[in-house]
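I have been asked to look over a protein record a colleague put together. This is what I was given:
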Amino acid sequence: MTRTGGLGTVGPGEHSFDLGGALPSVGRKAVSAPARWGTDEHRKTLRDDMDRTIERAEEDHGGIRETGSEELWIETPRGYLFFINALLVAPPVMVLIPLALRALLRARGALEGPSEFLDPFPMVAAHVLPTLGWLLVLPIALLVWNLRIEPARGPRAALLAFLLVHAGFLSWTVWGWVT
Protein backbone atom coordinates (compact mmCIF):
# COMPACT_ATOMS: atom_id res chain seq x y z
CA MET A 1 0.00 0.00 0.00
CA THR A 2 1.44 3.33 -1.03
CA ARG A 3 0.28 6.58 0.50
CA THR A 4 0.61 9.88 -1.28
CA GLY A 5 0.07 13.34 0.01
CA GLY A 6 1.42 16.84 0.02
CA LEU A 7 4.70 15.63 1.48
CA GLY A 8 5.54 12.97 -1.08
CA THR A 9 5.06 9.27 -1.67
CA VAL A 10 5.81 6.76 1.08
CA GLY A 11 5.97 3.10 0.11
CA PRO A 12 5.27 0.01 2.20
CA GLY A 13 7.74 -0.50 5.06
CA GLU A 14 8.79 3.14 5.23
CA HIS A 15 7.97 5.90 7.69
CA SER A 16 7.60 9.57 6.81
CA PHE A 17 9.18 12.45 8.69
CA ASP A 18 8.24 16.05 7.88
CA LEU A 19 11.27 18.26 8.22
CA GLY A 20 9.12 21.36 7.93
CA GLY A 21 11.66 23.28 5.91
CA ALA A 22 14.35 22.85 8.59
CA LEU A 23 16.88 21.91 5.95
CA PRO A 24 17.01 24.45 3.10
CA SER A 25 18.01 21.86 0.50
CA VAL A 26 15.15 19.54 1.45
CA GLY A 27 12.33 22.02 1.92
CA ARG A 28 9.07 20.31 2.84
CA LYS A 29 9.92 16.94 1.28
CA ALA A 30 9.27 13.80 3.24
CA VAL A 31 12.29 11.85 4.37
CA SER A 32 11.62 8.16 4.57
CA ALA A 33 13.28 5.70 6.90
CA PRO A 34 13.32 1.98 6.18
CA ALA A 35 10.99 -0.04 8.37
CA ARG A 36 13.88 -2.33 9.31
CA TRP A 37 15.35 0.42 11.55
CA GLY A 38 15.08 -0.72 15.14
CA THR A 39 14.63 -4.38 14.22
CA ASP A 40 16.90 -7.22 15.32
CA GLU A 41 18.40 -7.38 11.82
CA HIS A 42 19.28 -3.68 11.98
CA ARG A 43 20.80 -4.03 15.46
CA LYS A 44 22.90 -6.98 14.25
CA THR A 45 24.12 -4.93 11.29
CA LEU A 46 25.09 -2.05 13.60
CA ARG A 47 26.84 -4.45 15.99
CA ASP A 48 28.78 -6.02 13.10
CA ASP A 49 29.79 -2.57 11.83
CA MET A 50 30.99 -1.61 15.31
CA ASP A 51 33.00 -4.84 15.64
CA ARG A 52 34.66 -4.21 12.26
CA THR A 53 35.53 -0.66 13.32
CA ILE A 54 37.05 -1.93 16.57
CA GLU A 55 39.04 -4.58 14.71
CA ARG A 56 40.41 -1.91 12.34
CA ALA A 57 41.35 0.27 15.31
CA GLU A 58 43.13 -2.68 16.92
CA GLU A 59 45.09 -3.32 13.74
CA ASP A 60 45.95 0.37 13.23
CA HIS A 61 46.56 1.61 16.77
CA GLY A 62 47.44 -1.36 18.92
CA GLY A 63 43.91 -1.94 20.09
CA ILE A 64 41.23 -0.60 22.35
CA ARG A 65 40.47 -4.06 23.69
CA GLU A 66 42.47 -5.74 26.39
CA THR A 67 45.01 -8.09 24.78
CA GLY A 68 43.57 -11.58 24.41
CA SER A 69 40.23 -10.51 25.84
CA GLU A 70 36.82 -9.40 24.68
CA GLU A 71 36.83 -6.62 27.30
CA LEU A 72 37.18 -3.01 26.18
CA TRP A 73 40.29 -1.31 27.58
CA ILE A 74 38.26 1.30 29.50
CA GLU A 75 36.43 -1.52 31.32
CA THR A 76 39.67 -2.97 32.71
CA PRO A 77 41.40 -1.86 35.93
CA ARG A 78 43.94 0.07 33.85
CA GLY A 79 41.16 1.82 31.96
CA TYR A 80 39.11 2.82 34.98
CA LEU A 81 42.23 4.11 36.76
CA PHE A 82 43.01 6.20 33.68
CA PHE A 83 39.44 7.57 33.73
CA ILE A 84 39.69 8.46 37.44
CA ASN A 85 43.04 10.17 36.83
CA ALA A 86 41.53 12.12 33.93
CA LEU A 87 38.76 13.36 36.25
CA LEU A 88 41.20 14.27 39.02
CA VAL A 89 43.29 16.45 36.71
CA ALA A 90 40.38 18.85 35.99
CA PRO A 91 40.58 20.99 39.16
CA PRO A 92 44.32 21.69 38.84
CA VAL A 93 43.85 22.58 35.18
CA MET A 94 41.11 25.04 36.14
CA VAL A 95 43.61 26.79 38.42
CA LEU A 96 46.83 26.46 36.42
CA ILE A 97 45.50 27.76 33.09
CA PRO A 98 44.35 31.12 34.53
CA LEU A 99 47.61 31.36 36.50
CA ALA A 100 49.67 30.74 33.35
CA LEU A 101 47.61 33.23 31.32
CA ARG A 102 47.89 35.84 34.06
CA ALA A 103 51.69 35.36 34.25
CA LEU A 104 51.99 35.58 30.45
CA LEU A 105 49.84 38.72 30.22
CA ARG A 106 51.69 40.40 33.09
CA ALA A 107 55.06 39.53 31.53
CA ARG A 108 53.97 41.17 28.28
CA GLY A 109 52.63 44.21 30.14
CA ALA A 110 49.03 43.64 29.02
CA LEU A 111 47.65 43.11 32.55
CA GLU A 112 48.08 45.33 35.57
CA GLY A 113 46.62 44.42 38.95
CA PRO A 114 43.90 41.84 39.63
CA SER A 115 41.68 40.43 36.89
CA GLU A 116 38.03 39.50 37.43
CA PHE A 117 38.32 37.00 34.59
CA LEU A 118 41.57 35.25 35.53
CA ASP A 119 41.59 35.39 39.35
CA PRO A 120 38.46 33.59 40.71
CA PHE A 121 39.67 29.97 40.53
CA PRO A 122 43.21 30.69 41.75
CA MET A 123 41.75 32.86 44.55
CA VAL A 124 39.52 30.02 45.77
CA ALA A 125 42.39 27.55 45.47
CA ALA A 126 44.71 29.89 47.39
CA HIS A 127 42.11 30.06 50.15
CA VAL A 128 41.54 26.28 50.37
CA LEU A 129 44.98 24.80 49.63
CA PRO A 130 46.84 25.95 52.77
CA THR A 131 44.69 23.52 54.78
CA LEU A 132 43.86 20.87 52.16
CA GLY A 133 46.99 21.00 49.97
CA TRP A 134 48.37 17.78 51.43
CA LEU A 135 45.51 15.94 49.65
CA LEU A 136 47.34 16.55 46.35
CA VAL A 137 49.54 13.58 47.22
CA LEU A 138 46.59 11.19 46.64
CA PRO A 139 46.07 11.87 42.90
CA ILE A 140 49.84 11.81 42.38
CA ALA A 141 50.08 8.40 44.10
CA LEU A 142 47.17 7.10 41.99
CA LEU A 143 48.89 8.38 38.83
CA VAL A 144 52.17 6.67 39.74
CA TRP A 145 50.29 3.42 40.41
CA ASN A 146 48.51 3.69 37.05
CA LEU A 147 51.80 4.43 35.28
CA ARG A 148 53.31 1.26 36.76
CA ILE A 149 50.57 -0.96 35.29
CA GLU A 150 49.93 0.82 31.96
CA PRO A 151 52.06 -0.57 29.08
CA ALA A 152 50.39 1.26 26.14
CA ARG A 153 52.23 4.35 24.90
CA GLY A 154 49.19 6.59 24.30
CA PRO A 155 47.68 6.32 27.78
CA ARG A 156 51.17 6.51 29.34
CA ALA A 157 51.83 9.81 27.54
CA ALA A 158 48.52 11.22 28.80
CA LEU A 159 49.26 9.97 32.33
CA LEU A 160 52.67 11.66 32.24
CA ALA A 161 50.98 14.92 31.17
CA PHE A 162 48.51 14.51 34.07
CA LEU A 163 51.48 13.94 36.40
CA LEU A 164 53.11 17.16 35.19
CA VAL A 165 49.87 19.06 35.85
CA HIS A 166 49.61 17.64 39.37
CA ALA A 167 53.30 18.36 40.03
CA GLY A 168 52.78 21.95 38.88
CA PHE A 169 49.76 22.30 41.13
CA LEU A 170 51.65 20.83 44.08
CA SER A 171 54.57 23.20 43.38
CA TRP A 172 52.21 26.18 43.36
CA THR A 173 50.71 24.96 46.65
CA VAL A 174 54.11 24.49 48.31
CA TRP A 175 55.15 27.94 47.02
CA GLY A 176 52.06 29.32 48.78
CA TRP A 177 53.05 27.56 52.02
CA VAL A 178 56.61 28.84 51.89
CA THR A 179 55.89 32.47 51.00
